[in-house]
């Protein structure tokens, strides 16, 4: 019996030893981001694919049935920022990342900087697919460079204006087509006791979409150095505009997707929402009592007659470094994101809005939507998608940037500081974060 | 999840007249104590009440009805929908949690009990050193160990398996600590001596004599360990990829992170959260007799 504790001690020591070697060994196993050798394998291939799209299993089942030689195993989990990205980084570190993974556009640069993505520029089929994707989505995965394709675009979030057609009509207010008209409408609606829209507390992604529409860009990479500019003229204009609405109490400020937020829309307190295509479901589920009273129009413009649109969200399918079968992985990624059957299935199971030009004309997206009074709302978004600027780029530390700016936004909405100050401090913090990770920054 | 809050429930059972033998208390301080306790009980129970009410509502009633009172009572129907969703994956998660937590706590308790007993009842070199190391383990949060564990399990290709969540759950430094203290107090050396004279081996003595004496402590350790594993979220989050291996906490979390895309998931998350605390409540009610004794016995003797 005396040996038991000793055995425990031995076990403890061995565990510690493994832990130590585990830590030191894994740091050497980081992959390089050389262009992949894109050649087919000899025999059958098994691939792993991590995504968080609900119901993605059924879509992949279609592929598996048609491709006995390339079998894909799906793994699901929480959404990217909910833990899956961190897991990807851990797995890359440990050398057991899946072959493919879902990554949102704003997180791609981060993975690239960490050498996590395989460059698919040698895969002819991928390069040949460029024309089938909406231009700006291709820019998101190539970072605007030659000979680089770091992922296959999956879905997109072009923005348009959801509005309460019944309230606008009953009160004789015209649907705003410019941001100036939007402001004027906001004043009238406030007099009637409502709010024109809700400026979400701490939601910087929507704001990024506004800046994108206005033609701003926060990050730039010239091949080696990063430029960070969260306070350029365009961004400042947009920030000042919304600050003006907040200061005059013309917009409400509930945190998005909470019960209060749902209730504000459901009770007709808030009249419009300039949001992405997937927002159609947020309203339909959050404000069921207002069914049939909503419509969709193009986003208000900064100058009358312009046709610019912003984007909010969207993701891609990337092949991780360390995958032994980039050719097959790329082939699957292309099928998943371009074939009509896959796009239709993903739209059906999870309202995924495609990133291909043809995908925007899927039969399911041509139908009228009951909640929106039978309007074929996706036509509006298809148009918007073509109007999104391809020049907007994300930085390699977006999670941190979001956190910093959204803290400032929360404070600004409650009257402490301004949106502009939040962006200024976010810019400073982002530059510090880049420097601390030894990512070269041009100032 | 907030299951731990149910510990406040047993307190109410003491609200009878003070026992004649107990220390005398002033009426004022009694009223004060009861007030404070009622406030806290309410504070702990309101979230569960809210969860129950919310889970019983129709999705359209969720936003526009009083959050603390019922609208149409749809609980049964909601549960039915939850269980049917995606071929009953929720049931699978509940089952996984039950296995991780039930089996893990059982074996974990056994190991902790054996270890604590050995540390209390045998003299050998390095005994205090080992105990101090284990005691140090109490201070290290499980979250901090998750990442190193992931790297270790990666080396032996065990990530994304049942074992990657199960094996780390077997370790309970706090259990070792508690059972050691308890064994030292409640298992008399004379009894072990007597068993030896009767020809009983050490293992047999442990299982037939000592375990019975240590039972309250073991139940306490089991409960703590069960709750810890049931609520453990970070380790499965890091280790597991396959939905079929998820415990219920991780499953609900991953649904919750997709509410933007699939709004009906919100209702499932609520109903699922309600169902997921039921096993803990049942366990506490069943075992409270033992574990209350367990905590008390170690303290006074």
TrEMBL record, chain A:
<feature type="signal peptide">
    <location>
        <begin position="1"/>
        <end position="19"/>
    </location>
</feature>
<keyword id="KW-0732">Signal</keyword>
<protein>
    <submittedName>
        <fullName>Sugar ABC transporter substrate-binding protein</fullName>
    </submittedName>
</protein>
<dbReference type="InterPro" id="IPR050490">
    <property type="entry name" value="Bact_solute-bd_prot1"/>
</dbReference>
């Amino acid at each position: 019996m005396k040996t038991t504790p000793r055995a425990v001690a031995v076990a403890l020591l061995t565990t510690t030893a493994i832990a130590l070697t585990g830590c030191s060994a894994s740091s050497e196993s980081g992959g390089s981001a050389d262009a992949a050798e894109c050649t087919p394998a000899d025999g059958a291939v098994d691939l792993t694919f991590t995504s968080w799209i609900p119901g993605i299993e059924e879509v992949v089942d279609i592929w598996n049935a048609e491709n006995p030689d390339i079998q894909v195993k799906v793994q699901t989990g929480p959404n990217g920022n909910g833990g899956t990205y961190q897991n990807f980084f851990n797995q890359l570190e440990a050398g057991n990342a899946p072959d493919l993974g879902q990554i949102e556009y704003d997180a791609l640069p981060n993975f690239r900087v960490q050498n996590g993505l395989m460059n698919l520029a040698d895969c002819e089929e991928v390069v040949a697919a460029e024309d089938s994707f909406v231009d700006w989505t291709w820019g998101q995965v190539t970072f605007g460079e030659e000979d680089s394709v770091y992922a296959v675009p999956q879905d997109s979030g072009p923005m348009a204006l959801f509005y309460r057609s019944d309230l606008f009509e009953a009160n004789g207010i015209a649907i705003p087509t410019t941001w100036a008209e939007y402001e004027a409408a906001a004043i009238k609606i406030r007099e009637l006791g409502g709010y024109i829209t809700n400026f979400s507390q701490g939601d910087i992604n929507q704001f990024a979409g506004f800046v994108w529409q206005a033609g701003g860009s926060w990050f730039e990479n010239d091949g080696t150095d990063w430029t960070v500019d969260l306070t350029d003229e365009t961004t400042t204009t947009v920030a000042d505009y919304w600050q003006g609405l907040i200061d005059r109490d013309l917009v409400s400020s509930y945190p998005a997707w909470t019960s209060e937020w749902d209730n504000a829309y459901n009770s007709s307190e808030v009249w419009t929402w300039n949001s992405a295509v997937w927002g159609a479901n947020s309203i339909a589920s959050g404000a069921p009592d207002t069914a049939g009273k909503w419509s969709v129009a193009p986003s208000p413009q900064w100058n009358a007659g312009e046709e610019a649109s912003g984007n909010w969200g969207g993701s891609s399918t990337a092949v991780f470094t360390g995958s032994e079968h980039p050719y097959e992985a790329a082939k699957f990624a292309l099928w998943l994101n371009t074939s009509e059957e896959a796009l239709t299935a993903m739209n059906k199971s999870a309202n995924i809005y495609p990133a291909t030009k043809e995908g925007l004309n899927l039969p399911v997206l041509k139908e009228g939507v009951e909640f929106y009074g039978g309007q074929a709302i996706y036509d509006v978004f298809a148009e918007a998608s073509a109007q999104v600027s391809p020049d907007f780029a994300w930085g390699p530390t977006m999670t941190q940037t979001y956190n910093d700016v959204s803290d400032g936004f929360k404070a600004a909405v409650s009257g402490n500081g301004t949106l502009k100050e939040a962006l200024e401090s976010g810019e400073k913090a982002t530059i510090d974060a880049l420097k601390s990770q030894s990512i070269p920054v041009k100032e | 999840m907030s299951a731990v809050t149910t510990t406040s429930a047993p307190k109410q059972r003491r609200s009878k007249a003070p026992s004649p033998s107990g220390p005398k208390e002033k009426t004022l301080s009694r009223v004060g104590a009861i007030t404070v306790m009622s406030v806290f009980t309410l504070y702990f129970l309101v979230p569960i009440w809210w969860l129950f009410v919310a889970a019983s509502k129709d999705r359209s009633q969720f936003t526009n009805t009083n959050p603390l009172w019922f609208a149409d009572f749809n609980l049964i129907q909601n549960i039915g929908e939850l269980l049917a969703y995606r071929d009953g994956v929720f049931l699978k998660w509940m089952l996984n949690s039950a296995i991780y937590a039930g089996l893990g706590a059982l074996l974990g308790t056994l190991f902790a009990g054996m270890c604590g007993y050995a540390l209390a009842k045998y003299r050998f070199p390095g005994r205090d050193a080992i105990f101090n190391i284990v005691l140090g383990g109490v201070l290290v949060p499980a979250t901090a160990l998750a990442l190193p564990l992931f790297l270790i399990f990666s080396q032996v290709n065990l990530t994304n398996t049942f074992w990657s969540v199960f094996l780390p759950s077997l370790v309970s430094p706090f259990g070792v600590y508690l059972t050691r203290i308890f064994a030292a107090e409640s298992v008399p050396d004379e009894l072990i001596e007597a068993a030896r004279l009767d020809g009983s081996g050490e293992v047999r003595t442990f299982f037939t004599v000592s375990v019975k004496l240590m039972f309250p402590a073991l139940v306490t350790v089991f409960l703590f360990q069960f709750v810890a594993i049931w609520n453990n979220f970070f380790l499965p989050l890091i280790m597991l990829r396959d939905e079929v291996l998820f415990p219920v906490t991780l499953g609900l979390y991953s649904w919750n992170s997709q509410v933007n895309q699939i709004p009906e998931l919100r209702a499932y998350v609520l109903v699922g959260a309600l169902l997921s605390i039921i096993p803990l409540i049942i366990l506490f009610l069943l075992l409270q007799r033992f574990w209350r004794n367990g905590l008390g016995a170690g303290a006074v003797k």
